[in-house]
Amino acid sequence: MNKILSRTITAFVIVFLYIPIFVLIAFSFNASKSRAYFTGFSLKWYEKLFHNEAILTALFNTIVIALISSLLATIIGTAAAIGIHRMKPITKATIMNVTYIPIINPEIITGVSLMLLFRAFTIYSGFQFGFVSLILAHITFNIPYIIYSIIPKLRQMNPNLVEAAEDLGCNPRQAFFKVTIPEIMPGVLSGFLMAITYSIDDFIISYFNSGTTVETLPITIYSMTRKKVSPEINALSTIIFIVILAILIIRNAISNYKLRKERLEYLASKS
Amino acid sequence: MENIIISLKDAIVEFDGEQILKKINLDIIDKQFVTLLGPSGCGKTTTLRIIGGFQQMKSGSLYFNNKDITKLPPHKRQVNTVFQKYALFPHLNIYDNIAFGLKLKKLSDKEIKSRVQEVLELVNLIGFEKRSISSLSGGQQQRVAVARALVNRPKVLLLDEPLGALDLKLRKEMQIELKNIQQELEITFIYVTHDQEEALTMSDTVIVMNNGVIQQIGTPVDIYNEPENAFVADFIGDSNIIDGIMRKDFLVDFAGNSFTCVDSGFERDELVDVVIRPEDIKIVPQIQGAITGVVESVIFKGVHYEMIVDASGYKWKVQSTLHEEVGSLVGMNIEPMDIHIMHKMEC
Amino acid sequence: MKSRILAIPYIVWMIIFTVIPLGLVIFFAFTSQSGEFTLSNIIAMNDYLDVLFRSIEFSVIATIICLILGFPVAFLISRLARGKQGTMLMIVILPMWINFLLRTYAWMTLLEENGLINRFLGLFHLGPFNLINNSGAVILGMIYNYIPFMILPLYSVMTKIDGNVIEAAQDLGCSGFHIITKIIIPLSKQGISTGIITVFVPSVSTFIISRMLGGGTNDLIGDIIESQFLGNSYNPHLGSAMSLVLMVIVLLIMSLFNQFGSEEAVI
């Protein structure tokens, strides 16, 4: 009884999650502009999408901003995580709590607070809203994710590893690059990937800090949704969905392969 | 003449104002298997970490072949360590783990290869070069850790409870293997453990520690047969420890009776600890016993029975090949040479 | 010792881009256009109390429904075999990877007057119903966008519940209902409070969902803030006062669920 109910709810939730997406995908192949009547198969919205100058520029902007901001956030954040890890508990807790603010604060508040700061910059210097303000804002909301994905790796790391490296002849600097960095690398990478996805996905903070000259993809999408009918959005959603699905499936396959390989090696060593 | 390779003088270590090592002095003889033995928190690992260079002393000095190396950083010391949880580098395969130290020394690839092969052979891991660390069992990881340290040809190998994570059978095998390696390579091993049996089977010299103080240094036989104080007696093997009064040389009072013993040199009427091993107590008919008591419990242990005998309040631990009924009255006798008299420990 | 220096660039960054901007919000909230101290911005919030209460009401309803729907889903996933858990989680997370503007837009096309749902119901000679531009549509948008934020933290605590614990409860005479109330809910507390916060915070502060699905008649506090900064009624002082109020609400909710500063709360 219990099981039937929870299965029904689960099925309902999954259908609920996917129906809108599949509708978007189906109508991306619609021959007409209608969002209600399927009048025949066509790829014309894809064609239009790839000739839409605004979308292509926005896509380029989004990728450039995501890469630059994630890279800088990763460098600053990795250094910060290592530094914070060695601090006294009280200092550490204070810094981690402030680091937590951009994660828990409503995005709109992070957005408007940065906007107030950049506006102060424009008043007191020649600062202009645009690429730089976007990159600064993205770095700001990305660093906490980097720090939070590296700190657990540092904490899990066997403290003897660095000592072992020094024991075998590393000076402290060599031990840092030969042992600490490779050890926390998975955390650095997953933080970097997280930063890229948050950066690409961000609308609200970018919306308040882009000014009038630079648009990222989500901002362009937003202005498209303001128009009543824009079937290119369907085509765009479909492409994004398929790209993400492919990435996730490949990632899953890789981790499965790694797991299986390790298990085989382990079994082999037992026999 | 025996050559002292490592010498620790007046070592004091403090954590948060608490003394972990209370001014200890220690000489390690070259080419010996030396064990630091004691309960957790006794300072044995701290002592090892001083020698490895990972622990700074508040005061005191460390000498290696008569040279002061107190301030020398770990990477410049001629010792290598096998860490408690191995501390193998998870991002490197077995070959690269073992070659780690040699690569830092910028040896030629050929030299590195042959030396890695040599130690792999020593620890029985030929053919495992390309394996990842996570694919190894605990015992294999242990061997890699030993190989990684030995490949650098250290003068002294430090081992911090290296067998603690292994199951009993594997531990016994590794004990023998480590001892063989030590004898084959003829280098000094300093081995930290809390397992007294391990210490007794492997060592040339055992150093018993407690509360940051060295309690006794000696051969395993000395330590077992002639414990210097009640702590050592209790920690090494099972012991009955009772209060006694030394009446005069070779005569001690305890358990309501006077016994001849082989100890002398105590003050007249000095309060002492009397230590008697359970296997040294003979169960005899009640009338013949110097001490009498009631059998409280009997447990079969394979080679012998282990009994608790209550003699006017003190519960004696006794090992006997004879079975006695619970509740029966028995007598107990002790030979003079099995009575060990010790000065009371200052607390 | 030395490596602590590595954190200095970040600490400087944090002060300039996190602490000072929040300070500016507070500063603007208590100053007038001419820069003098004033409480008038805060007092002006009185005119927007209805919007504020509407925001809270909508997001509370959305959070409760997310919890009711998300709880059985998370539990079901947590009891599957390891491999299947991964797949099911991927199914739940996948929609989150699509920009929420696109997901919300998808609902626009479904709900509008001659949208798919009304056309489907029309086949049975029902409707057309007024499905969009009302409060229900806004709440639906919140649930749709944020329900994965409820399922994930619930799952991550539930998957740690040992199956033997549940069996032990059964063995001791727990009925199905009591297993939920006496075992699973107490053991999932951490996940429940994290889930509530991660759904409530973006819901109460949204301005897109209400704009796209609410049809301009169901403005929320986020819409009002947005219009003070980028819209027609430009007034960053009033906007800051509103942001401050919103922040206080969020902080209250968080201290209510006792999560602030807990590192486990971050997924």
What would you note in describing this structure?
- The complex is a heterotrimer of chains A (271), B (347) and C (267).
- Chain A is mainly α.
- Chain A contains 11 helices and no strands.
- In chain A, helix 3 runs antiparallel to helix 8 (172-201).
- The mean pLDDT of chain A is 89.
- Chain B has 347 residues and is α+β, with helices and mostly antiparallel strands.
- Chain B folds into 2 domains: 4-230, 3-Layer(aba) Sandwich (Rossmann fold), CATH 3.40.50.300; 240-343, Beta Barrel (OB fold (Dihydrolipoamide Acetyltransferase, E2P)), CATH 2.40.50.
- Chain B contains 8 helices and 20 strands.
- In chain B, helix 3 (109-122) crosses helix 4 (138-150).
- The model of chain B has no long low-confidence stretch (mean pLDDT 90).
- Chain C is 70% helix and 0% strand.
- In chain C, helix 5 runs parallel beside helix 11.
- Chains A and C meet through helix 1, helix 3, helix 4, helix 5 and helix 6 of A and helix 1, helix 3, helix 4, helix 5 and helix 7 of C.
Quick gist of this model?
By secondary structure, chain A is an all-alpha fold.
Feature tags:
heterotrimer, A: 271 residues, mainly alpha, 2 domains, 81% helix, B: alpha+beta, Rossmann fold, OB fold (Dihydrolipoamide Acetyltransferase, E2P), 8 helices, elongated
Q: Which percent range describes the beta-strand content of chain C?
A: under 5%
* Fourth CATH level, the homologous superfamily of the largest domain in chain B: P-loop containing nucleotide triphosphate hydrolases
Low-confidence stretches of chain C: 260-267
User: Main β-sheet of chain B: number of strands, strand sense, barrel status?
Assistant: 6 strands, mixed
CATH topology of the largest domain in chain B: Rossmann fold
CATH topology category name of chain C: MetI-like fold
Name the structural class of chain C: mainly alpha
